[in-house]
Every structure is written in C-alpha cells, then in structure tokens.
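Note to self: keep these together.
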Amino acid sequence: MKQVSFADVVNTCNLKEEQLEVPEWGGFIVVREMTAEARDAYEHSLFSQNEQGSFDKNLSNARAKLIAACVVGPDGKRMFDTEQKITVLGNQPISTINPIFDKCQEINSMGADEIEEIAGN
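Structure:
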C-alpha cells in the first residue's frame, strides 16, 4: 500500500449523488453529499449568537437549510443558494419536504441521534 499524497486526495474527491423523484414538483431532483466544509456551515447555521456572546439553538427552517446544502440543479450548483430561496423552500408542504430531508440525511450519514446531538449542543 502506498502513502497518500495531496494530489491523491484532490483527485478522489467524489461526492455521492442520488436522484429523488418529487412528484409535487413534476420531476426529480439531485441530492448531493455535502463536503466537510458544507456540513460545518450547515451545523453552524443551527445556532445564533445572543447579546451576551454565547450561542443559542436556532432551528428555524432547519429542514430547508439542510436541503439547500444538498440539492443541486442541472448546472451542478446549489439550487437553493440564497436566503430568499431557502425561505421559499421552507414554505413548501411538509409532505413534500420530509422525503427530501430524509434523503439528505441518508446520503450524509446523519442519523436521528446525530441531529439530536447537534440540536442539543
């Protein structure tokens, strides 16, 4: 077995992708695995700093934020890439959002216990 080089790391960054049928939207979406940086950004978005400088949980639109971090358009870029688009996504019916949210959790190996840990800490 050889020692891995930086070039090996760069050349093997393959993110998993899966198509998910969303009949309510008339077709399918592509759900992509997050990078470590995107995962950290998502987790950070679940907290807000209060006036005392400490952090409080901010679970507002948490499902939409995760979906926004994972769903890519035909161009390969995030489909929901602005706060306005994330808000629109968050106003979709929960019956549409939950299967997408579940797929995002699955492709990113996020179990329910991990979500609870993030929310609890």
